[in-house]
Write a structure and sequence with these properties.
The chain is of the alpha+beta class and 305 residues long. It has nine helices and twelve strands. It has a five-stranded antiparallel sheet with strand order 4-3-11-10-9, with helices on both faces.
Length: 305
């Protein structure tokens, strides 16, 4: 008899336990569903902020002379504006973004690179001299701030297989990234029928570069000085991107200019935790038009839900 009573109470306790677990499981699922973190969110100072797809206020796009333009919201992965974004165009020194990616995947920051004797290259320069040995990091700064064609070629010439193999690696990387309208035939961005990209592809290239913290720091650097490893040669460097000093939130990336490509600029901007990337190709006023597009983007769109 006692056995039956004890069994009954044990059975009853088991039923209550099952009902309790079921109740809190259902409650927990509902709470998690409500607090579910959306894909487009960021954690800032311990406060979770949520972002929805950008909502346009219908403001007209600024007048542009650019041959192609692409603006991407990196926070929510939405395209804010595009004009001829898939057209293949000469891209001048914005090429060096890909040069930096490929080189950074091979060299270490402190890798010593030697400048060939009798070294000479046209266009923008750092001013390296034959026989000089610099760290890879120093040459990266020279290539991305001064837009040094000499620095780009030193990086490529020290690569296994030299310049031709380096350019081959650039095109292989373009294939890996799925770029449809991009091909390289030099590491600096000299004009050539076989050297081109598009505003959309340059956006994808830049997104890849932004995964590298060292490149992010260099893109945002206004001025610095680098020295050869023997301390005999010094090179003062100044970032050619005027917007770093003139426009709020600009974090740099890369300028470019040739007669065929005209004025080009890839700009990363962050305001109120919203990051956008603005690509302007073939412009008569890259800094002015990029500034107008930045202000238009942040004034025309709203994000916070």
């Amino acid at each position: 008899m006692k056995y039956n009573i004890y069994s009954f109470f044990i059975f009853l306790a088991g039923i209550l336990l099952i009902l309790t677990i079921s109740f809190f499981s259902d409650l927990g699922e509902g709470v998690l569903g409500y607090l579910n973190v959306p894909q487009n969110s960021s954690q800032v100072a311990g406060i979770q902020k949520y972002y929805r797809s950008p909502q346009s206020k219908g403001m007209p796009v600024p007048d542009l002379t650019s041959r192609a333009t692409f603006i991407k919201d990196l926070t929510t992965d939405n395209v804010l504006y595009q004009k001829n974004a898939g057209n293949s165009l000469p891209i001048a020194s914005t090429t060096k973004i890909m040069t930096a990616i490929v080189a950074s995947e091979y060299y270490k920051s402190n890798s010593p690179l030697t400048v060939k004797d009798g070294y000479k290259v046209d266009g923008a320069k750092v001013g390296v001299v034959g026989g000089e040995v610099l760290s890879f990091r120093s040459l990266l700064y020279g290539m991305l701030l001064n837009s040094g064609n000499d620095a780009a070629y030193v990086i490529a010439e020290n690569y296994p297989g030299g310049v031709s193999n380096f350019v081959l690696s650039m095109n292989q990387k373009a294939g890996f990234l799925g770029l449809e309208n991009t091909y390289f035939d030099n590491p600096a961005g000299f004009d050539s029928p076989n050297h081109f990209s598009s505003a959309k592809d340059l956006t994808r290239i830049t997104e890849e570069a932004l995964k590298d913290p060292q490149l992010v720091r260099i893109f945002a650097t206004k001025d610095t000085e680098v020295t050869s490893l023997d301390k005999k040669n010094r090179h003062g460097l100044h970032n050619l991107n005027k917007l770093l000093s003139q426009v709020r939130g600009v974090l740099g990336v890369k300028t470019g200019y040739t007669a065929a490509a005209k004025e080009n600029l890839v700009t990363l901007v962050e305001r109120d935790e919203i990051r956008i990337l603005v690509v302007v190709l073939g412009s008569d006023d890259r800094f002015g038009e990029s500034t107008d597009l930045i202000e238009w983007s942040y004034n025309n769109f709203s994000w916070v839900d």
